Amino acid sequence: MNKRGLGSVAVATATVLLLGACGSVEEGSDVEDTYNFATEQVVNPSDATGGTLRFGYSDQIESTDPGNTYYGYNWNFTRFYARALMTYAPDVGTAGTAAVPDLAVDLPVPSDDGLSWTVKIHPGLKYEDGTEIVAEDIKYAVARSNYGEELLNGPKYFQELLADSDSYAGPYAGGDPLAGFGGIETPDDHTLVFKLKRPFADFPYILTEPQSAPVPVDTEEGKGELYQTRVLSSGPYKFAEDYQPGSGLHLVRNDQWDPATDPIRKALPDEITVEEELDPNEIDQRLMTGALDVDLGGNGLSPAAKGAAISDGQIKPRLDNPSTGAVRYAAINTQVEPLDDVACRQAIMFAADHDSLRRAWGGEIGGEIPTQFLPPTLAGHDATIDFYPSEDDKGDADLALEKLQECGEPDGFSTNIAVRSDRPAEVEAAQALQQSLERVGISTEIKEYPSSPFTKSYAGSPEYANSNDIGLTFYGWIPDWPTGYGVLYPLLYGGDNIRAQSNSNLSQLDDPDINRLLERSTETTDPDEQAAIYANVDRLVMENAAIVPAVFEKSVLYRPENLTNVYFHSGYAMYDFMALGTTNK
Amino acid sequence: MTAPLDAPESAQQADPEAIARGARNVASRSLTQIAWQRLRRDKIAMIAGLIVLLLILAAVFAPLLVKWFGYPPTEFNQAPIDPATGGVYKDPDNPFAGIDKTGGISWDHLLGLEPKTGRDLFSRILYGAQISLLVAFLSTILCVFIGTVLGIIAGYVGGWVDTVISRAMDIFLAFPLLLFAIALVGVIPDSAFGLTGNGLRVGLIVFIIGFFNWPYVGRIVRGQTLTLKEREFVEAARSLGASNRHILFRELLPNLLTPILVYATLLIPTNILFEAALSFLGVGISPPTPTWGRMLSEALPYYTTSPHFVIIPGVAIFITVLAFNLFGDGLRDAFDPRSSD
C-alpha cells in the first residue's frame, strides 16, 4: 500500500470516529459496530449443534415440493430436505454465486458440441427411508416438474432446453410415466446425460434448481401437487409430520443423511419450524425481540421499518445492507414515437434525476445508483460504463435539451409512464422521473395498472404498449441464476423473445449486434469470454438508451442475536439458511 | 322518565301577547323564510355552513391560494428530506440534528412537507379538496337526478311500474358497491367515451357512486310522492285537466325539493368518504394528482417519523365530512315542520 492509500485510510478512520461521536449511540454503551458485517464475513461462527431454528413467513409457503416452486427463498429453504444435482457455493461475497456439485460428484461435463451434459452422482446416498438415490429418480423429478399440467409453479427451463421430448405429455398423462421423455439418459444408476436442443453454457445453473432433487416414482405415486404433504427427504432434515398448507412446517433430523458427502450443509439445529401467514410487521417485531430467528421470505425489513431501524444506534449494528441482485429500471419503448429515435431516448437518459429516483427506494440504504445495467454482483459488470454523467446525479438538463434538438423535438414531447399501482416505490419513482423530465419539456402521464396482469396484458403486450403510447415502463428484475445471461437475455434479446404477451423485453429492443452477442454467450463456456460479452452488451444497451437503470437494489436485513453462522449469500440474495445455527434451545 | 305533567316553565309563563304576535308573523312567512330563520338560530349549522363555503372557495381558488402561500403541488423538494426515513431534517445542513417530527411546518410551508418527495402539503391538500368536492358534488347530482326521476315516477304511476322500479332499487342496494368499484376502476382502459387519464377516472367514479346510490334518494322521493299525490292541490290540478307531466313536475316536484336538498347535503359527505376509500385502496385518481385518500394511504408507513402526514389529510377529511353532516342536519331540522321552533 502506498502512502496516499494509507492517508485516505486514516482520514476514513477519523471520519468514522467523528460520525460515531455524533451518532445516536449513547455514551458509555458497549454496542459493537457490526453493521453490515454479515455481507463480508460469517458472523457468530459456531459449530454447536442443537436447538430449534424458527422461521416465520408472511404468506403460505409457495409449495414444499422442490419440483413446484419458483421463489428464491424456497430454493434456499428446500435444501434442508432436498439435495439437487448442483447448488451454490456456501461462501461469503460473490464466490457464493458459483454453481458447485451437491448430489453430483463433480461439475457437469459438456460434450464438444455443447449439446449434451454428463453428470455423475455420489453412489450409496440414501433417502430418509433407507432406499438408495438413483439417477432415474432425478430424471423423474425433472419430468414431473417441467412437463404436463400438474406442477405449474416452477420455471420450465428443462422443457425449453431438452431435446427429444417435444411430444412428451408428462408423467401424469397415464401409462408409463417416462415413456417418450428422451431428453435425459441414465446409462447406469449414477450417471445422467442431458441432451439439449441448442448449446447452453449456463446449464450447470439450471441444475441448481430444486427441480433436479430426486423424487422416486414409487413414493410419489402420481400424487403430483399433493406430494408436498410429505416430501421424501434426501437432505439432513425430514418432515416430522404431514404438511398442511398454511398450518406451518416442522422438520426434524434425518439420520440417513451422510454429512461426509455434503460440504454444503452445516445442519446445526436439531429441529426447524416455519410459521406461515404472519403479518410482515409482526415478523420484524418478533425478530427484534428474539421470538423468531429468520424471516423465510428473506426480503428484509419493510420499507417503513428499515428507515427507523437504521437511524436507531442500538439496532443498527444488527443490520446488514446487502445487494439483492435486483435491478430496478424504467424500460424505454424503442417502438413508439418519438422514442424510436435514439437521440430522444438519450434525452431521457440525460434528464433523469438519479438521486431522486433512488430516493424512491430509500436512498443509500435502498441501493446504488447504476450507470450501467448489470448489477455489481455479476461477472461482466463494468464500472467504467457511464455515458450520461451529471453533477450529484441530478441529471443534466443542458445535454438533454441538446439531444432533444438532435432528435427534432426541441420543445420536448409527451409520452406515458406505466407502473404497477401496488408498488409504492415504483409509483414514487415514476413521479420522480416525471418531475425530472418536465424540466426539459418532456411531459408524461403516469398510468397505473394492477400488478398481476401488468406483464401479461398491459406493459408486457407490445400491441397494448405501442397503441397506448407507453414510452416508459417501470420494472424490476432478479435473474433466475446469477449470470449476465440471466439478466440480459430475457430483457434485451430481440427476435422471438419479444412475445405478444408476457413479454419481458419491455424496450422491444431488437438490435442485431446485441442479439448476436447474446447468442454467442450461450455457445462458449469460457467465463472470461462470457463476462466480456456481457459487458459489451451492457455498453450497447446504455448507448442505445433502451433502459433507464434506477437502482441496484439493497435490502436491510435484521440479524437476530441468537443466530450463529450468519452470512449473506449472494446466490440466493439472503442469509444462507443451510449454514444457520441458533443458541435458542 | 319525568312526569309528563311537568310542562316547560317557559310555556307556563308565556306572554299571551307575544304568542299572538308570533302567530301573526308565522302567518306572513313562507316555508323557506321560516327555515332560514330557524337555520340562522342554529349556531352549529351556521358554523358548519361557513366551513362548507370556505372549503368550496378554497377548492375553487386553489391555484390562486397556492400561488400566494404555497408551491406547485407536484414540485419535488428533496434537499431537506432524509432519504432513509423519508422525514424532514430539522436542519438540512446538518443531517445529524435529526428529524423534525412536525414535518417541516413553517411560514414557508404552512402544512409542512410530504415525506420522501418533499412536496408542499398545503398545496396538495387544497388540490386534493378539488378532487374530493368535485367527485362528491357531481356524483351527488347524478344520484339525485336518477333517484328523483325514478322515485317520482314510481310513486305517482304506481302499479307494475312501481313494482319494477322498487325491485330495481332493492337490487341496486344489495350491490357490493366498493368491491364493484375496485374491480371496475382497476380494469378500465386508458381512454373511453372521449375521456382519457384522470378525466376518465373522475367520470367513472362519479358514475359508479351516482349510478349505484340513487335508490337511497329514490325511496325517499317515492314515499313523499305517495303521500303528496293524495293531497288536495294535486286533486285540484287533476280535476282541472292538468297533464301527468304538469302534475309530476309542476305540482309534485317543487314540494319534493326540500327533502331532496336535505338528503343531497347529507349524501355529499358519504360520497367524499367513498372517494377517499377508493383512493386509499389505490384505485382512484392516478398520481401525481393529489387526493386525500391516497395521501392517507401513502402516509401510513411514515407515521412514526412524519406523523403530520397522517394527521393533516385525515383532519381534512374529518372536517369536511363533519361540516357537511352538521350543515345537512341543521338544514333538515330547519325544514322539518315537526321540529320545535
TrEMBL record, chain A:
UniProt record, GO biological process: peptide transport
- Organism from which the protein derives: Nocardiopsis ansamitocini
Q: Where would I find the Solute-binding protein family domain in this sequence?
A: 100-496
Q: How is this protein annotated for GO cellular component? A: ATP-binding cassette (ABC) transporter complex; periplasmic space
Q: Which residues form a coiled coil?
A: none
The protein's GO terms of the molecular function aspect are: peptide transmembrane transporter activity
Q: Name one Pfam family in it.
A: SBP_bac_5
Alphabetical list of CDD domains matching this protein: PBP2_clavulanate_OppA2 (cd08506)
Q: Which domain of life is it from?
A: Bacteria
- Designated name of the protein: Peptide ABC transporter substrate-binding protein
TrEMBL record, chain B:
One of its GO biological process terms is: transmembrane transport
Where would you say this protein principally sits, based on its record?
A: membrane
Q: Which protein is depicted?
A: Peptide ABC transporter permease
Topology class, membrane = Multi-pass membrane protein
Q: Please tell me the species this chain comes from.
A: Nocardiopsis ansamitocini
Alphabetized UniProt keyword annotations? Cell membrane, Membrane, Transmembrane, Transmembrane helix, Transport
What is a single Pfam family found in this protein's UniProt entry? OppC_N
Q: Which residues cross the membrane?
A: 44-66, 131-157, 169-188, 200-221, 260-285, 305-328
Q: Which Gene3D superfamilies did the record assign?
A: MetI-like
What Gene Ontology cellular-component terms does the record carry?
plasma membrane
Q: Where in the cell is it found?
A: Cell membrane
Write out the similarity annotation: Belongs to the binding-protein-dependent transport system permease family.
Per UniProt, residues of the ABC transmembrane type-1 domain are 129-328
